[in-house]
User: Fold these one by one.
Assistant:
Number 1:
Amino acid sequence: MQTSEKPSNSIIENPPDCHLWDFAGVDGLQVAIALFSPDITYIAPFQSLTAEFNQQPCAVLRLCEGNFRVALPAGGNAIERAIADLGLKVWVKPCDRIATLFLFTDKGLERLSQLATTKSIYTLSPFPLNRAVPARINGIAILAWHILWQGQPKLVIQTAVQDCDTVHAAFLQSVTAQ
Amino acid sequence: MQNLQVIPPDGLETYDDVPAPLGKVVAEYRIDAATAIAYSVKAGQYIQIMDVEGTQCSDFLAFAGEGYQEELDSTVTRTLLGMAMPQAGLHNKYFSQAMRPLVEVIQDTCDRHDSFMLACTNTYYEDAGYVGHPSCSDNFNQVLAPYGMPPRPGWAAINFFFNTTVDDSGAIISAESWSRPGDYVLLKAQQDLLCASSACPDDIDPANGWHPTPIHVRIYEASENFPKAIGRRVAEALPLRFTQDSAFTPCIRTLTQHLVEYNSFWVPVSYSHQGDQAEYWALRQRVSLMDLSALRKFEVMGTGARDLLQWAFSRNVEKLEIGQSAYGCLLNPHGGIIDDGIVFRLGELAYRYVGNCDTDGLWLQKLATEKGFAARIEPSSHQLHNLALQGPYSRYLLRPLVEIDAEWGLNDLSDLAYFRFVTGRVGTIPVVISRTGYTGELGYELFVHPDHGAALWTMLMQEGAAYDLMPLGMQALDRARIEAGLLAAGREFHDLISPYQAGIGWSVGIKTKGDFIGRAALEKLRERPPFVAVGLTLESNDIACGGQCIYPVGDRWRVGHVTSGTFSPILNRSIAMAQIAPEYAQPGMELEVGFMDGFKRRVRCQVGTLALYDSTKSRVRA
């Protein structure tokens, strides 16, 4: 995955301090409780919380009953080892196929609601902190995540690596249009 | 899209053999028996496909795009929806092979169609010995030819009113159509479409009742705004019932679009950006608000009202005081549960039954007539919609808002005991406040005239903000009621299951009252019901959400089955409600839940009380 900062000073592509990992399985919730916080039981799919892993802040997004995505500031495979040590029934792997675009929320949320469409049960207006919404921009699937990252609210757009430039361009065009 | 070769209607004739139009008609077609037509619709227009005489199938095709290359695809549709057929409501669209929606189901009064089979083919009839028999596929070939569509031996259609099911062996069973005269499907075109509809010619099996009859199609203007609804029949004596909003639904729709049909009402599954876990915890730790207007209410009045309820209802209502209520069930002669519900004593000769079924009133009236009880039954669901305010803070929230009518001699809501009710006002809104619920928490149910529903919802949501109140959807409610061991109709009981089997034997006044319906059977069932209801705690995190068989440890033969299951957040365990042979139902007993085919994975579980959360009911009685 390439990391770059493009001229649009408000969109950062694949920042080096954000590493996404997925884990899922019948014991997914128990892994999340053990690694992060019992508070994980309070959040529903497409909700997240800020936690700590290896004394560093991280964000944990629930995707389904036993499916979670973690955003970690540090690289390496510490989370893989930690999960293996638990001996529970889950798989864990880095999100190699996902690219991320980090946007500042003040403009990002507004642009997103103009650019993206969702299924009827989801909404981007409002889009509170620690929520995620599956959506599409020009037909391209994204997962928008309103996250507290390094103490700042950020809008993180996750999309397939091969679609990253197109989605990035869509956001840039929306700026131009404004 | 190119200009469509529209087959014009024969003018807008008046048809007196079908129900009146739903709105402004732009085209109308009568499809003679055993024929088909092609017709065009514009995006946004509505297509009503109507069974004129009943028991008649109508296959349907739709094509979009310049060369009609994008066609309706039932496999894509089933996959995207996770349902065999779209249904009015959330899962309501038929998709093309390009995964774009072509039509949306707006209303459906039959709710039994086929999406698995081809439109009938020449081959089907030929193989049965009927050479030269017309078929829907061949009829489609003929009417689509003018549009340049090459013929096919069989068209993959959506077969409206065609009654098929897939049995446990995978066989697709077809039988006589469920549709009655005038039944219809109302679709909304999502794009400009070329459509084709048939009146199926099949007279060699029961699909069309052996006698093919016409189909009627109406096209309505796009400016119409027909409500989404499923029409259901629950009894021959009752009119078709369409899914409706409660008095609170407009408020709920501002908070979520995730609504489904439940017992003929649109109810929220969960709320946007809340989710069922947060709603659940709001209920268990703070306070939550839910719309339970789908409950059915019946006024039972007259000098024979008490005797009727003594005969029909499992509890002894003789000692109920005015302002007191009792949970129990309506019984049938063999001791089965027709419905569970609560009887409220409103006055000397006035009771209210609150249950789940429209047919409860018919049943009570029938019994009153048969037994000569001077009792009158009047449905009152249309006058009483209800909210449940549940959770440990519900009392704190409600108390300062409530003014109890003086006649009850009760100044403080805190003095309202469990299964007691009063009338009063919340602000200026007249309500009945009942200390009951379906969650296993302290709570209240508020019955209100629909005219005041929105105001009551708004006030409780506003005042509840101080307690971090959350509205609660059905998904969270289901978690809570399974934890609390509370029964759901169709899951834990039905009319072949006795109260002793369902786990509410305590609600049968077998020792406290005289004869009542089903008593003789229940006296025998009480000794040893074939199964009893228990709670199960599973050793793994697999969710046994219903239907899984239960086995003795290491054995192949069954001792019961799961009726409902969920993950309990408060217990942090997978739990279930189950029906178990009495010999295996002792608390603490270890059994196995069989997943998949029952053998691929067995999960140990422990038998417990039906209510695995707060089994002593200390919280609801607090």
Note: Chain A has four helices and twelve strands.
Number 2:
Amino acid sequence: MTTPNTGLPNSGPPNDSVIHDIGFRHYDGPRLGRGWAFRSLLLETLRGAFGLGRPAKVKIMPWVLIGLFTVPAIVIVAVVILTGGQELPLTYTQYPIAMSLLVSLFLAGRAPYAVSRDLRDGIMPLYLSRPIKRQDYVYAKLLGLAIAVWIFIATPVTVLLIGALLAKFPVRDQLLGWLGGMLMAAVLALLITSIALTLASFTKRRGLGVAAVLATLVLLSGFVSVLVSVVTMQRSGSTGTYFAVLDPYLLVDGLSAAWLGVDPQNDFAQPDGALGTLVFTTALVVIVAGMVAILLRRFRKVGGV
Amino acid sequence: MSTIELVGVSRWFGNVVAVNDVTMTIGPGVTGLLGPNGAGKSTLLGMMSGFLPPSSGTVTIDGIAVWRNPAMYKEIGLVPEAEAMFDSMTGEEFVLANARLHGLADPHSATVAALEKVEMLEAKARRIGTFSKGMKQRIKMATALVHEPKVLLLDEPFNGMDPRQRMHLLALLQQLGTDGHTVLFSSHILEEVEDIAGTIEVVVAGRQAASGDFRSIRRLMTERPHQYSLSSSDNRALAAAIISDGSADAVSLTAQGLDVQASDFGRFVHALPRIARDAQISLFDVTPADDSLESVFAYLVAR
Amino acid sequence: MTTITTSGLTKAFGSVTAVSNLTVELPTGVVGLVGANGAGKSTLIKMLLGLIPPTSGSATILGFDCLTDGLRIREVVGYMPESECLPLDVSATEFLVHMARMSGLPASTGRERAADTLRHVGLYEERYRPIGGYSTGMKQRVKLAQALVHDPKLVFLDEPTNGLDPAGRDDMLGLISRVSSDFGIAVVVTSHLLGELERIADHVVVIDGGVLQRSTSTADATQLSGALLVEVTDDADAVMARLRDLGASVAAGRTPGSFAVELTDESLPAAVVAIVAELGVGLVRLQRRRHHLSEIFETSGVTS
């Protein structure tokens, strides 16, 4: 039906050639606003904590640490199954406290990556010129990293659950214990992340941030343990336990005993009665709120548009 | 009078050759140092001011080598590109410290004079950490001027300054050049260089590409036909007349008028008024399109 | 069409007034913002983006109120900062996708627009390499891209040619013109370089110490002045003398062979050509002089 096109103008029916317009395209679709932006930043922080979407060498540290952190849980589970034990030697709430050094290491590595990097790059004007508010940045970073820490802690704790179920321990008890462990893991994650982010937000240098967070968490533990022991020896009663709130791990340890009635990893961290519970809980709220307040102020001052 | 002389100068950092066999003479007056980013301008200024030794060749001022020669520092004022400053000092303290380091007889009045030249007298008591970029640049200039050196080396000196400050300091540099100082300044803002620099030195990837008055340099580029933009009362007729005259290589009609290419610049500019008169065409606009420093520079970089 | 309107806009930080009683209307197209005193410029941008409230006065941008509609404004406005702001360890593609999402674009749209925008600003294979290895010119392009990726109606470009060499400046200025003319996005560009603004700006606003000095279209500010610039190959004195004989007012120029003639009479250009032809001298230049933006700074007593 078609006559051949001789290439001369007006020589036949139009052929099928076309030139497409690849100029700038406008966008009339939905703009998902503040909530979506918040979610994106949170997810980006969360993924960045595990090195996802980054080159391979950035993945090494976090995944090695998860491995190191989980291996003892696997060992415990194996031993329990093989020796026919009746209960987990380390409970769901005790495990993270016993292995707190590895938790600190993980956090110390990831907190500066979440925050110091942004300060060093000076990226705040780019975020602030987008549909978010200043506080959204702080909350997204905090929650993103806290969720990452929570996942980090939850992994071996869940391994313990799997092992307990495989060893045919009573299902209901173990599930309840695991849920309690998940809850305290979340509380711990939020507490130490808020501290670590605040420390990291004061330096643009990643190395310095890592050192500061690690030093603070580790030294605090050592120092507070000594403090509590000394005070307990000097004064009878439970005065010493109140000092435990100064160390985030001891604080959460004590809270798990107070809220859930489980045995704490450290006996001297057990808060005494209702007053003790009140003091510990208040300390938790005050510390987290205080850290968040400092972070908000920090990022109000820094590199605005 | 001071003359900076570079003879066969090269400077390498490992395998990176920042300056490659450059021979140039910078005399009194204002000279512009031009080149793309990374061409070696800052390295050249560093060698001229005694911060770096040449890897080969000699760098002298009035015949005396600059490297490791603190006596020469009195004669040189340098405004470096680096932005880092002593944020905790006030502007005045910083300039005064420089004046004292130079061993001036009356550092205080020299400081005031320098601050006045760069219009920083009002803000002198404020800490440098509170300064805008333009103000920091002016303080840097003041420290380079405070000891009244014969040679002034400036690396992108107007970066961050607003239009009025730029005009004022360009005039200052021009005055210093007229007074017989040797002023060498490197800049990417070619309109400004065109304004005050009598000669230019162009470096490209470490090699010296050209030197002299840029209009003369343009004439030397015989391989590139000169471009002209014309507009007249009858562009088509003018185009035809120019073509038949034979003094141009090519003529094209544009929305504004005519674009003419002429290899023989002299022959064309002499022929044009005659052609227009004989054809009874009124010329409205005759503009050399590539006679600016911007065009000359673009050609030099593209070679 | 007006994009930005301010009315008595003022911002004071304690005893320092960064923006003082600014009342101005900015048209669409490319608007140049010039001025002394850096504090005024960045404070103004922050107020227009709805990030800080004014001390008094008001402003609207694209019909939105800067005081109450900050989030909506930042959905449809782009900003290219002057400062270093790019993460160095990610590729341009990754960075731009993240920025697109942060502007509210859905995931797949963000990816496509990121890729397209990088092409529009002229980044090709390098977009897959980490930004840390880019040249200044490439980094400026990435900064521009993140301001455009979400199809804003207006962009603020803060000193976009900073640090670029002449070729890079040329490219960036061409790109900015295209943003306005081809992409149809209103541009507000700040610059200290009046030559650049003469080249690309349709309208210029001069602010000094937070106070409005001038708001004028570039065309008005660069009108033809009443003088004719002439340049001849030689014998300039003879040409000038002949013109003076005709009663024209002639002043010698700075470069040899150049002079300026006051255009009191429309027949003067023809007279010049006739004289030049008669004397057998070459005509290098015959040009109507224009006013320059720099004249605003010379005469209006703008101080810093």
Note: The longest helix of chain A spans residues 134-166.
